[in-house]
Specification:
With 218 residues, the protein is α+β, with helices and mostly antiparallel strands. It is built from 8 helices and 6 strands; from the N terminus they run E-H-H-H-E-H-H-H-H-E-E-H-E-E. Helix 5 packs across helix 8.
Length: 218
């Protein structure tokens, strides 16, 4: 699984979100820490500028954002800032990723049209989950399944990009949790939902799973 990859645009979203939260120096510091722990990680994460990607579709891009580097990026956050603070920062970066991702892929996923915006919230959640799953299957090596029941939405991820080759005592895909939280906030026009990672490959589970309450907290 060492050749799993992401398109350049998704790597660019990660870079933009990191620089929003930590600044350019923070991005460089995290890359340096990832590089120090695993040799070539920073090379894979050094994404091109937005200008150089203008006018190119996802399908036209070479897959150069390799999964081991993305995993080392999150490990680099924890090494640089400490385990718990680093995971909190990863969650913030996940939230910051969503607006950039919406800007980049919203039209493609059908999320910006009036027909989608007028859907009731439960239908929005299902439509969004299906659209995102389709995007990941089409343009990445991730495999995602969505399960619904008892007022919960379970987002199962195999070949997880965020914890490949990591070994931790607790779930560690905090960036995905933050991304889901911000997506739900946007979908519901400002409501807060409970999102929890209940299984993680890095912890020894068979797959990573986010559990999302379909009813908002507030």
């Amino acid at each position: 699984m060492t050749d799993l990859s992401y398109p350049q645009r998704m790597g660019q979203i990660l870079r933009q979100a990191t620089e929003e939260v930590l600044g350019e120096e923070g991005w460089s510091s995290v890359l340096g820490m990832a590089d120090a722990s695993a040799g070539d990680g920073a090379d894979y994460l050094n994404t091109p500028s937005s200008a150089s990607l203008a006018g190119r579709s996802v399908a036209e891009e070479a897959k150069v954002i390799y999964v081991p580097a993305a995993s080392r990026y999150l490990e680099g956050l924890e090494r640089l800032y400490g385990s718990q603070p680093g995971r909190g920062i990863a969650r913030r970066i996940g939230r910051a990723c969503f607006p950039y991702g919406l800007r980049e892929f919203g039209d493609t996923l059908g999320l910006t049209g009036t027909s989608f915006r007028l859907l009731p919230l439960p239908a929005k959640l299902k439509t969004f989950a299906g659209a995102l799953t389709g995007l990941l299957h089409a343009h990445t090596d991730q495999r995602v399944t969505v399960e619904e029941g008892d007022g919960k939405l379970l987002w199962h991820v195999e070949r997880c990009t965020l914890c490949l080759k990591r070994h931790t005592s607790e779930p560690t895909c905090d960036l995905a949790v933050g991304l889901a939280e911000e997506a739900l906030y946007w979908l519901s026009s400002g409501k807060i939902f409970q999102v929890e990672e209940i299984a993680c490959i890095a912890r020894g589970d068979l797959r990573c799973t986010l559990r999302i309450d379909e009813a908002p907290i507030s």
